[in-house]
Every structure is written in C-alpha cells, then in structure tokens.
Amino acid sequence: MVHATLVDDGELLEVHERWAENVVCALARMGGQVVGIVASQPAKLAGAMNIASSEKAARFVQVCDAFNIALITLVDVPGFLPGVEQEHSGIIRHGAKLLYAYCNATVPRIQVILRKAYGGAYIVMDSQSIGADVSLAWPTNEIAVMGAEAAANVIFRREIERSENPDQTRRDRLREYEDELMHPYYAAERGLVDEVIDPAETRSRLIGTLQMLGTKQSTLDHRKHGNQPQ
User: Fold this and answer.
1) Which residues are in the CoA carboxyltransferase C-terminal domain (predicted)?
2) Calpha distance 84→17 (Å, rounded)
3) Are 98 and 62 in contact (CB under 8 A)?
4) Rounded distance, CA 30 to CA 208, Å?
5) pLDDT attached to residue 2
6) Torsion of CA 182, 184, 186, 190, to 10 degrees
C-alpha cells in the first residue's frame, strides 16, 4: 500500500514487515523530512485490523512520537477483523492501544483515506475525530459505518421484506444509498476530511502539508503518566 513513488528515491525501511502484515509500518523521507508511515495492507486479511496489527501500529506510533517523527496514515480498512477468537482475546482493548497512541502523539499527523474507511477501525487510524492535523481523501474514499450493501439491507430491511419484488427493491435502495451517501465528496461535505485530492498529487500534497505543519507546537496536559489500555 505504501507506493514507492510517494517517498524520496523510492526507499523506505519497513518495521516488523513479517509480523501483522495487514498493516505496514515504515520509516521514509518525504521532501527530505523523515516520516513514519502507517498504512493498511488490503492484500492481507483485506486490510482489516486485528489484535496483532493494532499492537504493531500502536508501538510504531509511540516510537515516532518519542523521536519527533511526523506521522502519515494511509487508510484502506474495512473494519476490525470479526471472529470469536479475536473477541475473546480482547480486540476492542487492543484496538484501543492504537487509539491511545495517536491521541497521545504531539507530532504532525496527516491522514489520507485511499478507499475503504469503515467503522471503528477508521476512527483509530488517525481520523479527524481523534486529532489528525490534516485529513485528505482520494475520490475513491468510502467513509461509513459499514459497506453500502450491508447498510442498505439494515436501513431498508422492512421495506425490502414487504416488497413484492425484494431483489429489485434492494437494488434500488442500494443505488439510492450509494448516490446520496457514498459519493466521493460526501466526506468533505460532512467535514470528515479537509479536502478530496487527485491521487496523482498525493506526494506533493503530503510534502506541502508537512512543511505547513513544521512549526506545530503541541503539548499534553501535565500529568504523572498516561493510563494506556493493557
């Protein structure tokens, strides 16, 4: 998911690349500045977040913040990985570690939504609601609680059940849902992202945003220590 054309000289150093491969954590340079990149990897588990990837990303975010390295988060996440094993092992508790790490970070934070951004996993991937300085999105962005088909089946369930032609009604309501709520600029209209950008301009926009945030000064309220989820 971290395309070589985004970073200087196409070079990056991936951290723990063989562990929790559904998220990529890497160090690179953009415009000469060192950055930490957290990116969904849809080639593994469709990019869904699980316990291992939450732990991996949270630790990486904390390391970047400790060494004053700006964070760039590339999002293409369909949600948290479902399953009894994940639930019994505490996926919510472990996912909260990534949420905590981002909220605790004072370095420049930029989010880019590439495609899917569903549910709680979107929130913990440095969304505006947890303090991202700038949130950009490609025209292919899909910010939602769930996929359009699943959402339409829930919202219009009773109408579909009462219909004489349920399949046609389902298709009509799905099309209506996509046209009204899943179009590329819906996120910008609702203030969920700052701007929808041309994918070809991603590198230049990131470098410009990093320069803009270069003078960011942010400190946390004084306290003895935080209370990180365990």
Assistant:
1) 1-225
2) 26
3) no
4) 10
5) 61
6) 130
CATH code matching the domain that covers 4-141+184-215, chosen among 3.30.70.100, 3.90.226.10, 3.20.20.100, 3.40.605.10: 3.90.226.10
CA–CA gap between residue 106 and residue 172 (Å, rounded):
46
Tokens of 194: 């700052």
Q: How many residues are listed for the chain in this entry?
A: 230
220: left (phi over 0), alpha (psi -120 to 50) or beta: beta
The residue with tokens 């088909």 is: 149
| Stronger pLDDT, 19 or 156, i.e. the higher one | 19
Residue 216: predicted pLDDT: 87
In the block, tokens 């990019």 appear at: 47
- Nearest CA to 139 out of 202, 198, 74, 206 is that of 198
Domain ranges for the chain, please list them.
4-141+184-215, 147-183
Three-class secondary structure of residue 188 per DSSP: helix
User: Which H helix or E strand runs over 61?
Assistant: helix 51-66
Query: For residue 134, which of 218, 209, 28, 27 has the smallest C-alpha distance?
Result: 209
| pLDDT, tens digit (0-9, with 9 covering 90-100), for 149-166 | 777 777 888 888 888 888
Alpha helices in 125-226 (DSSP H): 148-155, 157-162, 166-181, 186-189, 202-212
Three-state DSSP at 3 gives coil
C-beta of residue 142 within 8 angstroms of C-beta of residue 182: yes
